Amino acid sequence: MKAVPVATFNETGPAQQLRDRLERAGIWTRVHDESKLERFWFMSEPLAAFHVEVNQPDFLNVRRLIQEWHESDGGASGSGPLPLVPLFAR
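Now predict its structure.
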C-alpha cells in the first residue's frame, strides 16, 4: 500500500513521538528520513526532513485525529505545538 506524508518535522524526536502516538491508536505509521538526501543536494542543514507517513486510505482520518490532538492537548505526546504542515495525498 502507498504511504503518504501527514506531517513533517525538523528533528527526529517529535516525528517519532507522533509515530508512536498514531501506532498506539492502531494506525500503521513510519518515519521517513530525507535529511541525508537534502544535505547532499542542497549542501545546507536540512529542514522538515523527517516525514511521518501513513497508508493512503488512512490519510484523512489521521489528519482529523492529529487536529483533535492538537486542539485538545497542544501537541503530540507533550512535545509542544504540532506543526500541521498542509500536505495532500498524492
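The radius of gyration is 13 Å.
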